[in-house]
Amino acid sequence: MTYLSKILEHNQQFVENKEYEQYETTKFPDKKMVILSCMDTRLQELLPKAMNVKNGDVKIIKNAGAMVSHPFGSIMRSIIIAVYELEAEEVYVVGHHDCGMANLHASSLLEKSKKHGITDETVEMLTHAGIDLKSWLTGFDSVEESVKNSVDRIKNHPLISSDIPVHGLVIDPGTGKLELIVDGFNSSKE
C-alpha cells in the first residue's frame, strides 16, 4: 500500500468520524500574526508549541530556510495578503539552528539533481534563459544574518506599511528555545 493510499484511507475515516470538528476556525488569525518559518520537519509541532499558538491563531508560511529570496515572489505575496486581507498585524520570521539551507551550495544540489535525471542541457538552458541557479539554489552561512535579511526585505517592502512590526527569531530545533534577533517594535522602516 502506498502512502497516498494510506492517506486517502485515513482521510475517509477522519471525515466519517467528524474528527475535523475540533479544528474548526475562521480564515482570520485569532492572534493577528503571520509567521514565516522553515519547512524543517522538526518544527512541525515544536514551533507552534514553543510560540504558544494553536490552530486558528496564526497564518504560517513555510519554505526552505524561512527566507524571503525575492521581493515579489510568492512568499512576499503571501505575507502581504496575510496583512491586508486576513488581518495579521505582526510578521514573524523564524529561522532555526542546524538548518538544511546553512552552507548549501548550488553545485552540490545540481549534482544530486543529475542523479535523478536532470541533464546538463537542462541546466545550461536555464542558465542561458537568465536564471541565476547559483544564487537561487544557494543557502546561507549564518541563520541570524539570514533572518535579518528576510526581516529587512519584508520591513522595507514598498507594500508593507511602517506600522506593521516585523520580528526575527531563531529557534533551537532540539529544545524549542527562541532567540530574539530583531524586535520589530524597536526597529523602524529604513
From TrEMBL:
Cofactor(s) this protein requires: Zn(2+)
Molecular function terms from GO: carbonate dehydratase activity; zinc ion binding
Keyword terms of this UniProt record: Metal-binding, Zinc
Catalytic activity: hydrogencarbonate + H(+) = CO2 + H2O
Residue stretches in coiled coil: none
Free-text remark on how the cofactor is bound: Binds 1 zinc ion per subunit.
UniProt EC number: 4.2.1.1
Pfam family, one: Pro_CA
Positions bound to Zn(2+): C38, D40, H96, C99
SUPFAM superfamilies (UniProt xref): beta-carbonic anhydrase, cab
Family listed: Belongs to the beta-class carbonic anhydrase family.
Identification of the protein by name: carbonic anhydrase
Organism: Salipaludibacillus neizhouensis
